[in-house]
Amino acid sequence: MADTMTPKVQKTEAEWREQLTPTQFKIMREHGTERAFSGPYWDTFERGVYHCAACDAPLFISDTKFDAGCGWPSFFQAVSPHAVRELRDTSHGMVRTEIRCASCDGHLGHVFPDGPPPTGLRYCMNGHAMVMRAG
């Protein structure tokens, strides 16, 4: 879903390590995940925009956030079709759709086809991969 017009942020591993916290680096650059109910935003429902913690690109709007009961921030759609990109993920003995930031390629989480209307999608994101700006 990445748009060729999306500006690409490219940094070395050392630059990412310097910029990101150890938890953010593990999640966003090494495709890790935070434990359920442990990261930020899983139970936050304030109005605002969720941005990529690595490059500050807007990713999700609070109006699309819902309580999926899974322990991670969940949204039914991205801020635009070009904000995130999808990749096939066959790790951990299952097939899933990984979601990355289209601007910096940072791992955000996964999307599943069990969300609410109108999309039926559940973008299950790592809270440490995002920064919410109230508004």
What does the model show?
The chain is mainly β. The chain has one domain (13-134): Metal Binding Protein, Guanine Nucleotide Exchange Factor, Chain A, CATH 2.170.150.20. 10% of the residues lie in helices and 30% in strands. It is built from two helices and nine strands; from the N terminus they run ααβββββββββ. The strands form two sheets. A six-stranded antiparallel β-sheet has the order 3-4-8-7-6-5, with no helix packed on it. This is Peptide methionine sulfoxide reductase MsrB. It comes from Metarhizobium album.
Condensed summary:
Belongs to the MsrB Met sulfoxide reductase family. Its cofactor is Zn(2+). By secondary structure, the chain is mainly β.
Give the helix level as a range of percent. Answer: 10-25%
**Oligomer type:** single chain
Instruction: Give me the side-by-side strand order of the main sheet.
Output: 3-4-8-7-6-5
- Give the CATH topology: Metal Binding Protein, Guanine Nucleotide Exchange Factor, Chain A
Low-confidence spans: pLDDT under 50, at least 5 residues?
none
The overall average pLDDT, rounded, is: 93
Number of strands: 9
Characterize the overall form.
globular
What class do helices, strands and sheet pairing give? mainly beta
Pfam families: SelR (PF01641)
Catalytic activity: L-methionyl-[protein] + [thioredoxin]-disulfide + H2O = L-methionyl-(R)-S-oxide-[protein] + [thioredoxin]-dithiol
Enzyme class: oxidoreductase
Cofactor: Zn(2+)
